Amino acid sequence: MASAFPRRGFSRSRSRLPSAVLASLAIVLACVGGPVPAAVADPVDPQTPVLDTGVSLEDGLKVGAAVTVDQQAVHDRAQAALRALRIRMYNDPSLPFEGSLGHSETLKDYAAKAGYDSAEAYADAFTWSQELEMIAIQRAAENSITGMSHDRTAGSSTFTAAQRSGTTSNGEIITEYRDIDSAIDGAGPGSWSGEYDSLKANDGRYSGPEVAGHLHTLLDPGYTCYGFTSAGVSMGEAGLAQTCSSATDRPSASSGTYLVPVAIPADRAADVAYGSDSLDVGRSGRLTATVSYLNATDLPVIVDSYGSSDEKVVTVAPDGTMRAVGPGTATITMVSNGVTLTHRVTVDGASPVGTPSPTPSETSSPAPMPPPTLAPPAGGTSPAAPSASAPAAADTASATSAKGSTLSKPLARTVLKGGVTLLSTGLLIRGVTLGLARLRRP
């Protein structure tokens, strides 16, 4: 039999199913009062990959909300925490429970009505649903903009996010705890298991004088599949037996940071900021569009299609890359979830000329190399200083350039130790162009 949550006295409980279905939705916040504002989110990198959860969007401008997830880890930790919580509550002799099967003095007695005759059988009576997991990721992304709330980013009720691939989420629970196992079975205020005393005060009922809907949702054996995520907030989605037929007990492979498409009110299109409004002829540039809304800044607009009013001025590719073709002004049209944006782009100048070759700068003359320092002989006596003698009258050196001009200079002769003679003009010869030069003694 389908589980039913009485809605008496609990204003947040609403049904995602037709009234003929004897079930009501567990929509509860892990706080008392209205929506909790989130911290202002960091600007989003528009190059982040997009994760399409498959959940239908509201009407409005489509933007990307960033989430960072590790769904395999969430799956493993959530399964273990929920199983441990159910076993502990099953064995509690003082915890009453009431649901669609009536009222029982203990959760153990209520589980027996549902067909579970042991703590282990009751604790294992749920599976993981990828469809509910994707709904949870979608709602966590929307909460990154709205703050902790059951309303969606364009103002619609959460019920509009309740279905994916034929699977319906019949219950949604949220908490600001970021560790999913602590959210399910933590000790502090705000954890879902922290409603134990409230559930007892309500005599086991979902609603009553105390807020106990989160814990009731986790313990009710009428829910046979769940999907969780931890992405800024911890989010849980629960499904009744007739809506969990496609549950696979395996998580998605989602791991990393993604942009999840969400919708914000269409009138925010007037606040969109564009990355560029001019190009030079022959140049290309990516057209970006961002908008800030509620707790999020610089949300990238996700565009479904682009168009140019004059492709002789600017063309635009499906990924938003513009190419300037000729001087003038064109209007770029962008369609995002049925909302049309326009942006004027001006192209300046004539076709770009080729890049000129660099003019080589004159190379400065190298500094003369200092004379070598001679090591002393084995006896430790310093070498004799070189002696110089006057050059012979005929001792000259000539250099002939490739153009035939000749430069001659007299040679100075220096006799070094050991009879080695060093001839030098005292000048440096520098090559300034490609050619052949010969040094010779006449």
What does the model show?
Helix content is 15%, strand content 29%. It contains 7 helices and 27 strands. The chain has helices at residues 71-90, 107-113, 119-123, 130-146, 180-185, 196-201, 213-219, and strands at 26-29, 61-70, 97-99, 102-104, 127-128, 163-164, 167-168, 171-175, 223-231, 233-240, 255-264, 273-274, 278-280, 284-286, 289-293, 296-300, 305-308, 314-316, 321-324, 328-336, 339-348, 387-389, 396-400, 406-410, 412-415, 421-424, 438-440. The strands form 9 sheets. Strands 1-8-10-9-5 form a 5-stranded mixed sheet, with helices on both faces. Strands 13-21-20-17 form a 4-stranded mixed sheet, with no helix packed on it. The longest helix has 20 residues, at 71-90.
The figure for the number of domains is 2
Radius of gyration: 40 Å
- Describe the largest sheet: 5 strands, mixed
Distance between the termini: 120 Å
DSSP strand count:
27
Number of helices: 7
Strand coverage percent: 25-35%
| Global outline | elongated
Walk across the major sheet and give the strand order. 1-8-10-9-5
The stretches of 5 or more residues where confidence is low (pLDDT under 50) are 1-41, 353-393, 432-437
What structural class should be given to the helix and strand makeup? Answer: alpha+beta
Secondary structure: helix percent: 10-25%
Average pLDDT confidence is 80
